[in-house]
Design goal:
single chain, 1113 residues, mainly beta, 42-stranded antiparallel beta sheet, globular
Length: 1113
């Protein structure tokens, strides 16, 4: 936790003279000061602080209270003001987002000149302030808005000439020098464009057909958004576009990605009547009916979810895995979960809480009699009462350990136990604080954690000590070798880490290995130097970072033993207009990345895909990888010159690799059951089998695997080879024991320190990982090694310190696009190579990412993605969205762009919304189902009633002023169903079969003959009408002409037309009507056509109409 002290001062009548700072007194502004020196308690002390004592940001406002300029006083490395210009169009919209620029001023004053200053800064060619900063005549991201009150984005540009909007985006070609924006079109669904999926009445399965006839949404019932990324050009047609369809409840119904103008991939989202997501049907599923079966396409491809009566998620199904169960207590906290492998053993994962809802214990609960979710839920619901109350949480016994009264109370093995608030828990006295003064202000903080091994034995304790600001100043922990690790931290006033000292022992009486890390920051908190000291060896500057004037990393220097006079390596970084890295250059490895400016023969890329990678193991580049992609941004071909390497790939509809051809050899053919790889043939052969959790039990090498409860490999065996892994219960790897051809080796992992033991030899520290590489041990003396990496974090060269001013390259590696290594120099011991992940040589080169092992030989994982639900349109086994040149997977759980979108947001925040939306549509999910809803309480109903009243008044006021020309929601108050309607028509009572322009009238009493006549008249005019009679008013046995979702209707007309035309007449006469849902898109109404209906609305009939709902067009 980082604490900063802020003092905000609004200057209204006077100006306080500050140290070298003069905010403009003729402007409105708010100044924020981040104090960096301790002991500053008064305004007079603050005034005289220089920038290294207090960082100040001045936000200037125009007369309407809108921000118009932000000045970071002396924020640049050379202590010049960094300015962010803000301007608005005639409608008050920020249509251009400018890059920050550096002003020659150093006083924090308002910089007149606006966009002229920005353009001048980014186009001038001389001056120290532009070193390492890209030159561009268009230093802004422009947004083109729809010409309507909705202000919807039509185009989103970015800094740089190529990304500026064109008036006619549809005519932009690959050769166009501008116009490559993210474009968005809006509309509604058309005939036969979107299947209408409906959950079966029994909640088991879904269908999109009646008999053999497919059901489609009625045209105009769905909002349609079409997104085209920067690569889209006029001759693509629909290829490369993403269509998203949402219903009136703003729920995503369909996402469709076009591979070409005629070929698309569709992912459907199916909801129940309450709006809860029940099924996700991905592109590989071709049927129009979903039937829940333990095998076949449902098992292999469909995501499925089930809910209890309280709308809590109780069962879920991930493709290729068995059903997973969830069980809750009365506070709706999940207390049990079970996957398919646990079910066979009668085991559950449990969670216990304290009274504040904090997790105090997790572990394994065994009960073979609880064979279903319902039985487990009943067991929790019937947990014995204590003094008339069912225990739902645990308390501390005195101050030591926890009670055992919440479910489950027997058959449990604790894997993780958390302690809060104090240090009186069992074991804390054995790890006392050392050399610090701990705070007693630790309420709500985690003061201790016990984590067992992954078999539930030998728990290891960690104790956390804090200062009075809640910052962790020391952690003391036991390690699995029997020793301890103490890490002591020291911070400066704003909370930046100054020093971190680690003291490691492998046994209580063993020698202490001490590693001291010291950080130095510049005047605004940018990390400059990181120093390292091991035991009694001399301290070195491990790295020094140099920044350009707008704060981007410009240079990183490695290893100095003479206070920074000489370094053994220096790498330079440059960026393009988008903030994407385009060059990393040093004496031992150089890389250039081309996007929209490839060399001859390259495929131009405007959307962040990399067109070419030029590289060399010196300060020049002599090899070139050229890449091509399909319209879904999947890598199709990566071929290099110089160092000859190539991979050519094809994919199935789920993104599984179908064929891979490497170096023009024989193609590898992949065979699948669903997403699970079952066989390889051609250039590589092998077969795979899986367990109920979708984990590979056997692989292409003939290795047989077992897994722990976290789906991590526990053992791997084949003839002549056996490997066993030991983890703690959180998944951290503690030990690997491998026997290969009769020789046994053991490697122990303790938070970045690795011990190695071969045969009967003693176990000794082999390496200690650092921020820039590792320290290699030789008889107690540690030698510094540095990893030189490319843009993906792949280690391309390992540099060993040889003298105080020189280093030698002891390892060199190049890589195929999907990560297969091509070693050039291999004299080093570093096994952390592709993406910086450890190679498991005994397992055929699998890479350990933490959550899963990756096989670069075939370009996919062998275990289901733990976060598969966030990327449902993709195979849970594919790697990095099949775009491994742009994305990495930091921990085996989810891909991430190597050029963070947030980094660009610092300089052009207009891109964030557009790009994040596009990224989520192309790769991830932005349509996660709403949290399960529960029945509204009396207090919630009362609150919604008032909201409804307020809302109706507001809407009616706007009606009378004629201001609304778009869809408006207006519902009556007084009942839970209509209250849910106020919140977005998610009450679950609107039949999905009602189409565009449907009119529904809900009566407060029996319909009279005149009402029926009114409905019939509406029918004759081509309207679609439902009249609902309350069930309680019907005669016994009475039926209706129509039953939809079990609701009886007395009159039904199947004709769809523009019911919206009646709206203005209804709106002007609705003062006695409880509620209306309307669309004011059309107004010309012939009142004589509605006379009977209007009588009912005006209250002149026998009984007022309760609700009128006109579905939007």
């Amino acid at each position: 936790m980082v604490f900063k002290k802020y003092l905000s001062i609004v200057f209204v009548l006077c100006l306080h003279s500050l140290y070298a700072q003069n905010p403009s007194s003729n402007q409105n502004y708010i100044m924020e000061s981040v104090v960096r020196d301790s002991g500053v308690t008064t305004l007079s002390q603050l005034r005289i602080l220089p920038v290294q004592g207090a960082n100040r940001n001045v936000q200037y406002y125009d007369g309407l209270g809108r921000p118009m300029q932000t000045v970071q006083w002396q924020g640049s490395p050379n202590k010049k003001d960094i300015v962010q210009h803000i301007e608005y169009d005639n409608f008050g919209r920020e249509s251009k987002k400018y890059l920050p620029y550096v002003s020659l001023g150093i006083d924090g004053s308002y910089k007149a000149g606006g966009s002229v200053n920005v353009n001048t800064f980014y186009t001038k060619t001389t001056g120290d302030d532009i070193s390492g900063i890209v030159r561009t005549p268009k230093p802004y991201a422009e947004t083109v808005f729809e010409n309507s009150p909705l202000d919807r984005v039509l185009q989103q540009g970015a800094s740089g000439e190529a990304w500026q909007p064109e008036a006619n985006r549809e005519l932009v070609t690959t050769a166009s020098t501008t116009g490559h924006t993210v474009a968005v079109d809006y509309g509604t669904n058309r005939d036969s464009s979107v299947l209408f999926w409906k959950v079966n009445d029994n909640g088991n399965g879904a269908t999109a057909e009646t008999g053999t006839i497919k059901n489609y949404y009625v045209p105009g019932r769905l909002y349609k958004t079409v997104t085209k990324d920067e690569n889209w050009v006029s001759d693509n047609g629909r290829g490369g576009t993403v269509e998203e369809y949402r219903d009136f409840g703003d729920r995503v119904v369909l996402k469709r990605v076009w591979k070409s103008d005629t070929d698309s991939l569709s992912t459907y989202y199916v909801y129940d009547d309450y709006g809860d997501l029940c099924y996700v049907i991905p592109p590989g599923y071709t049927g129009a009916t979903v039937t829940e079966t333990p095998s076949g396409d449902f098992h292999e491809l469909v995501y499925a979810y089930k809910y209890d009566i309280r709308r809590r998620l109780i069962e879920k199904k991930i493709p290729g895995k068995g059903w997973e169960y969830l069980v809750y207590n009365d506070r709706d906290q999940p207390v049990l979960s079970q996957d398919a492998m646990q079910r066979g053993a009668g085991k559950w994962s449990y969670t216990k809480y304290d009274a504040l809802g904090k997790v105090v214990s997790t572990g394994i609960y065994t009960n073979t009699s609880l064979t279903s979710q319902l039985l487990a839920q009943n067991a929790v619901n019937s947990h014995p009462l204590v003094n008339g109350v069912r225990p739902l949480w645990e308390d501390r016994i005195g101050t030591a350990d926890y009670t055992n009264k919440a479910f489950p109370t027997s058959g449990t093995v604790a894997y993780v136990t958390n302690y809060y608030d104090d240090y009186a828990f069992t074991g804390a006295a054995g790890l006392p604080e050392q050399g610090i003064t701990k705070s007693s202000k630790t309420k709500t903080l985690v003061t201790g954690t016990k984590v067992s091994k992954d078999d539930g034995t030998a728990p290891l304790l960690t104790v956390n000590y804090y200062d009075d600001r809640g910052r962790l100043i020391q952690s003391a922990s036991q390690n699995h070798l029997g020793g301890t690790d103490y890490v002591t931290n020291r911070y400066n006033f704003p909370g930046e880490l100054l020093t971190s000292k680690r003291e490691h022992k492998a046994s209580p009486a063993g020698a202490t290995t001490t590693v001291l890390t010291t950080n130095t920051y510049d005047h605004v908190g940018r990390l400059v130097d990181t120093r390292k000291k091991v035991n009694t060896q001399a301290e070195v500057i491990q790295s020094r970072s140099v920044y350009n004037e707008i704060g981007q990393l410009k240079q990183k220097r490695l290893h100095s033993e003479n206070s920074g006079t000489n370094f053994i390596n220096s790498a330079d970084y440059t960026y393009n207009e988008r903030g994407w890295t385009n060059r990393i250059g040093s004496l031992h490895f150089t890389e250039e990345l081309r996007y929209n400016d490839p060399a001859s023969g390259g495929m131009v890329q405007y959307n962040g895909n990399i067109s070419q990678q030029l590289w060399g193991h010196s300060d020049t580049t002599n090899s070139t990888f050229s890449y091509t992609y399909d319209k879904l941004n999947r890598l199709e071909n990566g071929t290099s010159t110089g160092t000859m390497m190539s991979e050519i790939l094809t994919y199935d509809d789920m993104g599984n690799i179908s064929t891979l051809t490497r170096d023009n050899g024989t193609a590898i053919n992949y065979g699948y059951t669903g997403n699970r790889l079952t066989s390889l043939s051609g250039g590589l052969s092998g077969s795979y089998t899986y367990n109920a959790n979708g984990n590979a039990l056997t692989d292409r090498t003939g290795m047989a695997f077992t897994y722990n409860h976290l789906n991590l490999p526990k053992t791997a065996t084949k003839s002549g080879t056996s490997v066993a892994y030991l983890y703690d219960a959180s998944g951290a790897k503690l030990r690997k024991t491998a026997t290969v051809s009769g020789t046994t080796g053991q490697r122990d992992y303790i938070g970045g320190i690795e011990y190695n033991k071969v045969g009967s030899a003693a176990s000794t520290i082999e390496m200690i990982h650092t921020e820039e590489g590792y320290l290699q041990n030789s008889g107690g003396t540690y030698t510094y090694h540095y990893n030189l990496t490319d843009h993906l974090g792949n280690v391309r060269a390992t540099l060993q310190r040889t003298t105080a001013t020189t280093g030698a390259v002891i390892q060199k590696h190049d890589y195929y696009p999907f990560g297969k290594s091509k070693a050039i120099v291999t004299s080093g011991i570093n096994k952390y190579l592709y993406n910086g992940k450890e190679v498991q040589g005994e397992l055929g080169g699998l890479l350990d990412y933490g959550a899963r092992f990756y096989d670069a030989e075939i370009g996919r994982w062998n275990v289901v993605d733990p976060l598969a639900e966030q990327m449902r349109r993709h195979s849970p086994y594919n790697y990095a969205f099949n775009n491994p040149i742009r994305f990495i997977d930091p921990d085996g759980m989810a891909p991430a762009g190597v050029e963070s979108l947030l980094m660009w947001a610092r300089t052009a925040s207009a891109m964030e919304e557009g790009r994040n939306r596009l990224e989520s549509m192309m790769y991830g999910e932005d349509d996660q189902e709403d949290p399960p809803k529960k029945k509204l309480s009396a207090e919630e109903i009362a609150k919604l009633n008032q909201e409804s009243i307020d809302w109706q008044y507001d809407v009616l006021t706007k009606f009378n002023k004629g201001l609304l020309g778009i869809r408006t929601l207006f519902a009556g108050f007084g009942g839970e169903k209509s209250l849910r309607a106020v919140k977005g028509l998610k009450g679950g009572w609107l039949p999905e079969k009602w189409g565009t322009g449907s009119l529904i009238i809900e009566a407060g009493g029996n319909f009279s003959a005149s009402e029926i006549a009114a409905a019939n008249y509406m029918k004759s005019q081509g309207y679609r009408v439902f009249l609902r009679k309350p069930v309680g008013t019907r005669a016994a046995g009475q039926t209706s002409d129509l039953v939809v979702n079990g609701i009886n209707y007395d009159v039904y007309t199947p004709v769809t037309s523009n019911v919206n035309r009646i709206v203005s007449a209804v709106a002007s006469k609705n003062t006695q009507t409880t509620g209306v849902v309307i669309d004011l898109s059309e107004t010309n109404v012939v009142s004589s056509q509605l006379s009977n209906l209007l009588q009912r609305v005006q209250g002149t009939g026998a009984t007022n109409i309760k609700n009128i709902i006109i579905m939007p067009k």
